[in-house]
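Per reviewer request, we include the raw input and output of the structure prediction for the construct analysed in the revised manuscript.
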Amino acid sequence: MAAKAAQADAPVLIQGETGTGKEYLARAIHYLSKRADQAMVTLNCGGFPDELLENELFGHEKGAFTSASTAKVGLCEIADGGTLFLDEITHMSTAMQVKLLRFVEDHSFMRLGGTKPVTVDVRIIAASNQPIEEMVASGQFREDLYYRLNVIALTLPPLRERPEDIEVFTEHFMRQFSDKANTQISQEVKEKLHSHNWPGNLRELRNAIQRALVLSVDGSIKPEHLFIGAELPGAREKSHPPLVTLEEMEKQHILDVLEACGDDREAAAEILGISRATLDRRLRKYQEAS
């Protein structure tokens, strides 16, 4: 379906759990399309307040606000001729959804402080890990924008439902993170990877492989290098959990994931399904309260 969708310019909406690889699928669509030799620009809509999100998308003119000493080109213009990938689309406020709807309908916009519309040629791919249909029904997401984005709908199953992808992505991540040409994994490791349920999907697999490569000496991953699930440092017994508030549970989970990632905030934010800025705010809050 993605390969067929790539041949058209219609908007695509990709839905799936956090970490399933929605951006990988969006990139596959881009590189299979006639736009492959142009830019693919990605924006995580959950990482910005409205004012900054509008500025990121549409840019601004010189003097649009106090600190605007020069004009700025927005991502919509940078993506001209290529693909614009909007991740976490449901995190947009209703007001920002209206502005995006106008852009989706005619591919034109005005920079902040501008007086002339700018028209671009972009292919729009949006993604959500939230039940977007339910959000439309409850009024949290505009129905008209939903239908404009949902021309081609793709649902990406969790990794546990597509185990054939485990080895494919394992090899991809090993090439990505290893500086050794002949990096290998043992059969025992392959069996261990296939037996895990992967609640964190591809993000969890990515971090597991990166961590294993750090722990390995010769670039060959062995069972003792692979820590997943209950084997992760800081993992806790789940059979008799303490009775705590939801806020305390959230805090402990965030700290556990951060510890498991070796204090790599970028990796922890990916597993948690939140932006790096959100994670930083939570950690500052915990530090101030201690």
